[in-house]
Amino acid sequence: MLKMREEILKLVREKGLLLEKDLFDALDGFENMELVKSFLDNLERASGNKIITISNLSKNFEFVKEIVNELPGETKRGVEKIFIKLGLSLEIKREYKVQMETKPEKKITHKVFYADGNNARKIEVKDFVGHFRARYHEIQRILMQRPEVQANLTSINKLGVSRQSLTIIGIVTEKRITKNKNMIVKLEDLTGEVSVLVRFDSECFSKAREMQVDEIVAVKGSGNKDMIFVYDIFWPDSYLLEKTRFDEDVCIAFTSDIHAGSNKHLGKEFQRFVEWLNTDEELARKIKYIFFVGDNIDGVGVFPGQERVLKLKSTKEQYELLASYLEKIPKDITMFMCPGQHDAVRVPEPQPIIGRDYGECLYGIENLTLVSNPAMIKLIEGEKEFKVLMYHGASIHVFINEIEELRLMKAHRCPAKAVKHMLKRRHLAPMHGVAHSIVYTPNGEYDPLVIREVPDVLCTGEVHRLDIDSYNGTKIITGSCWQSQTEFEEKVGNIPDPCKVPVLNLKTGELKILDFTQDESQ
Questions:
Q1: Helix (H, G, I), strand (E, B) or coil at 340
Q2: Is domain 251-394+455-515 classified as CATH 3.60.21.60?
Q3: Does domain 128-234 fall into CATH 2.40.50.140?
């Protein structure tokens, strides 16, 4: 038994998992290590991250029931008792299916992985420390999988006085330009801090200019504990090696920034979209999922003087207008909706789902699933998973303001270029130490904004401009809007591109863009 426990502990460490103690104890009752490994793999998928607790497993309750139900006899009963002890009663029942003579259709289902913001308790200093430590561990694990980083990898406290070739992984705490036009960056890991120098005439100087405070990178160079001279810089990066294609000929529609309640809200055009979904057109009938990526209403008190530009003066009225649209969408279409800064939830990210206090009317719509911002949705056909990461995109402005390349190309006109940097850094909003950066709620156990799994699609909203791009196999979709140009947009020079709906076919990968400012598609 002791040997089995040691093997389990070794496996947990190799997989980089952190288990609630009682969950770890439950593994002692398993018959063999193959069963332990399979169960841990499934628990990790159900949890959505490397830290596995009952609270985050409960958010994927149905999937947890399925994996426990597959366990053999006594092992299953033992795990059920542990879960009940921890407050998660699975109530697992046997299901009997009548065998049909005709071949059943392939069933497409989905799983939702919510972002936990820990907003139900008081935030303490240790949460901020734990947040960044957890982020470092997760990004470090991704970086260490890169072959270029593995050679001569060392921690900062192991640096000596003699010069050596080395690679270190650290969080950027400071960067500045010297009088000789070189750049000095301070990097910190969990063991110490060191300064690294990038010469202005080196090949990696342009990469150094792109580095931002609070993000985690690997640097390869030569030096000692006093100074490292950098040869190259690496980000964790994302690569989707195999594209998922479904056998069923079904489609996903993406939209965002409805801004219901605004006096600039394009209600007639949105109604036209809803009416089109109810037609017998071939493409309309293929749509089985719609993603609404935040700013679903215009909100109240979001900015000073907002009451002047509101058609509906209360949040509840705005959500009732939104619900009146959604209720008319065909019931065989599953809708996913995350909040944005204008919705009736807290602004700090990750944002929780829209609550009943203001959005009660949304809870009666049976085919609407409210999710957090961000959220990972996995559409499932058999053993295939199509991953959609939805994030409203408040950090897009920070990326554009802080990265010179984006600023010079005026990336607000092509926001997908900014979203590429999220994938490159494997983080939706890494920059907290810069002006106008997003407000976040620290999580002492893990960073909810880390991109743990590379998605098939990363969809955002926020900028009110449809833009399509791809990055190492991941398709990027920044949403259009249903609001004409506001006074603020006119002031800052942002020209919206409203009423566009991209539709992605999960069988062919084909993407079509529909324009509901007109009566026909483009």
A1: coil
A2: yes
A3: yes
